[in-house]
C-alpha cells in the first residue's frame, strides 16, 4: 500500500527526530550517573582526608598514639598530608590502615619482653652468677696514733645494711681486727644479736708500736656472723694500708665491705633434689653428689659427708647425715631423707645442709653450707618455690657451697 510522505510526517515523528531524542536521553542519563559518582567520590575522598588529619592530631585514640611516634612533623608544626591520592584502590586503603595496628602490636610485645627481663626475680637481676657484685653492707671506723704512748687506736663504730646469714633472715655480726701481716694477734668486738645495722662503739689499742713499724702494717677488719653450733660465717672485709692514712689525728672512714678472701666459690657444689608431698605433709631430701669440694686435709683431699638439719623458726628439730666418703673431692652419695613438715609450717621451715670433712684426730671441718627456705639466697629460694609448685616431683638443682 502506498502512503503519502507528507501525511506520514504529519501523523508520526520522523526517524531523525526519534534518533535525536534517544541520543539526548542517553546523554542526560550518563550526565546524571557521572554527577552522582563525582559526588560520592568527593564525599569519600573528603572523609578519608579528614580521617588522616584526625589520626595525626588526636592523642586519645590508640592509633593516634602509635602513629604520633612514627609520623614525623615538619619544623613548622604542621602534619604531613597522608591522604590517599585519587585512584587508590580499596585494598591499598585497608593495607595502610592495618600498618599502624601492626606497629602497636610490635611495640606492646617489645615492652612486655623488656618488662619481663627487668622484673624482680629474673636471672639477670639475681646476681648470683657473679655478673653484678652482691651488696655486703659497709662499716664505719676510726684510726689514729698517739706518738707519746706509741699506741695505735682503732675504734669500730657501726655497720649498715649487712646481709642476712641466718635462716631466720638476720645475722649476729661481730668484727675481728688484725694488723697484717700478723694474723696471730687479733682483737674482737662483741656480738650484736639479730642485727643488720649494728652499733658497737668499741675502742681498741695496739700498744708499744713504734710509728715506723705501724706504717708498715695493714689494718684488716673482718665482719663475721656468729654461729653457736658451727663455724662463724664471714660477711665481708676491709683492708687499709696505714701508710696511706694521716695518723696524726683520728680519721673516720666509711668503707664498703668486700667478699672475704677465702672465697666461698672455691668450696665446691652440691647436687640435691627436693620432693614435697602435701597429702603426706613431708619433704624428701635426696643428697645426690658433690663436685670440686675444697681440700681440707694436708694430703690435698677430704673425707666428706653431709648433715641435713630440719629447722623450725630458731629451733633444730631433726638431724640426718650421709655416710663418709674417704679421700674424695667428687663424692656420689645418692641418699634420701624424709622429714615430716605440716603445710602451715612451710614458711617458717629451713633445711640446712652442711658438707663436712671427717677428721679422726680433731674436730670435723665445715666445707660449706646451703640454706633452703623462703628467705635464702636467689638460687635457694628458686629451688624451694619450684618444689612447692611441683608437688610429688623430685626437683633437682646444683647449689654453690657457702662458708
In brief:
The protein is of the alpha+beta class and 403 residues long. It has helices at residues 5-11, 15-57, 62-70, 90-118, 123-126, 211-214, 378-389; strands at residues 138-146, 151-160, 173-180, 182-188, 199-207, 218-225, 233-241, 251-256, 269-277, 282-291, 304-312, 315-321, 332-340, 349-357, 365-372, 395-400. The protein has a four-stranded antiparallel β-sheet with strand order 5-2-1-8, with no helix packed on it.
Task: Walk me through the structure.
Its main location: membrane. It is found in: Cytoplasmic vesicle, Phagosome membrane; Cytoplasmic vesicle, Secretory vesicle, Synaptic vesicle membrane; Lysosome membrane; Peroxisome membrane. It comes from Aythya fuligula (Tufted duck). Residues 52-106 are annotated as: Disordered. The protein is of the alpha+beta class. Among the domains are: 138-259, Immunoglobulin-like, CATH 2.60.40.150; 268-401, Immunoglobulin-like, CATH 2.60.40.150. It has 7 helices and 16 strands. The protein has helices at 5-11, 15-57, 62-70, 90-118, 123-126, 211-214, 378-389; strands spanning 138-146, 151-160, 173-180, 182-188, 199-207, 218-225, 233-241, 251-256, 269-277, 282-291, 304-312, 315-321, 332-340, 349-357, 365-372, 395-400. The protein is flat and about 145 Å long. The model is unreliable at 1-11 and 45-132 (pLDDT under 50).
Amino acid at each position: 500500500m502506498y502512503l503519502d510522505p507528507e501525511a506520514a510526517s504529519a501523523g508520526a515523528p520522523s526517524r531523525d527526530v526519534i534518533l535525536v531524542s534517544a541520543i539526548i536521553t542517553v546523554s542526560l542519563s550518563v550526565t546524571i550517573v557521572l554527577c552522582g559518582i563525582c559526588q560520592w567520590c568527593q564525599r569519600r575522598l573528603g572523609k578519608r582526608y579528614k580521617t588522616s588529619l584526625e589520626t595525626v592530631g588526636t592523642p586519645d585514640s590508640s592509633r593516634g598514639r602509635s602513629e604520633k611516634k612514627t609520623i614525623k612533623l615538619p619544623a613548622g608544626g604542621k602534619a604531613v598530608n597522608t591522604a590517599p591520592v585519587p585512584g587508590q584502590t580499596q585494598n591499598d586503603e585497608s593495607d595502610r590502615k592495618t600498618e599502624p595496628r601492626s606497629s602497636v602490636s610490635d611495640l606492646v610485645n617489645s615492652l612486655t619482653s623488656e618488662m619481663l627481663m627487668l622484673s624482680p626475680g629474673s636471672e639477670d637481676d639475681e646476681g648470683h652468677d657473679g655478673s653484678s657484685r652482691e651488696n655486703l653492707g659497709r662499716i664505719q671506723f676510726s684510726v689514729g696514733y698517739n706518738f707519746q704512748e706509741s699506741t695505735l687506736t682503732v675504734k669500730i663504730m657501726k655497720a649498715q645494711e649487712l646481709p642476712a646469714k641466718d635462716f631466720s633472715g638476720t645475722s649476729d655480726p661481730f668484727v675481728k681486727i688484725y694488723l697484717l701481716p700478723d694474723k696471730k694477734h687479733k682483737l674482737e668486738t662483741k656480738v650484736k644479736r639479730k642485727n643488720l645495722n649494728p652499733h658497737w662503739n668499741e675502742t681498741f689499742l695496739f700498744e708499744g708500736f713504734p710509728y715506723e713499724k705501724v706504717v708498715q702494717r695493714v689494718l684488716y677488719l673482718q665482719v663475721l656472723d656468729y654461729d653457736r653450733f658451727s663455724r662463724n660465717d664471714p660477711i665481708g672485709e676491709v683492708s687499709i694500708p696505714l701508710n696511706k692514712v694521716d695518723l696524726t689525728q683520728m680519721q673516720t672512714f666509711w668503707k664498703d665491705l668486700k667478699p672475704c678472701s677465702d672465697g666461698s666459690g672455691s668450696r665446691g657444689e652440691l647436687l640435691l633434689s627436693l620432693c614435697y608431698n602435701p597429702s603426706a605433709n613431708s619433704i624428701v631430701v635426696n643428697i645426690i653428689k658433690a663436685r670440686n669440694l675444697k681440700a681440707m686435709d694436708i694430703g690435698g683431699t677430704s673425707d666428706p659427708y653431709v648433715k641435713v638439719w630440719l629447722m623450725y623458726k630458731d629451733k633444730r628439730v631433726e638431724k640426718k647425715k650421709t655416710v663418709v666418703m674417704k679421700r674424695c673431692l667428687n663424692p656420689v652419695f645418692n641418699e634420701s631423707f624424709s622429714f615430716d613438715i605440716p603445710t602451715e609450717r612451710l614458711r617458717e621451715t629451713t633445711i640446712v645442709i652442711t658438707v663436712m670433712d671427717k677428721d679422726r684426730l680433731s674436730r670435723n671441718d665445715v666445707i660449706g653450707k646451703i640454706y633452703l627456705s623462703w628467705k635464702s639466697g636467689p638460687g635457694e629460694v628458686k629451688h624451694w618455690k619450684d618444689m612447692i609448685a611441683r608437688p610429688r616431683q623430685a626437683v633437682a638443682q646444683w647449689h654453690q657451697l657457702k662458708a
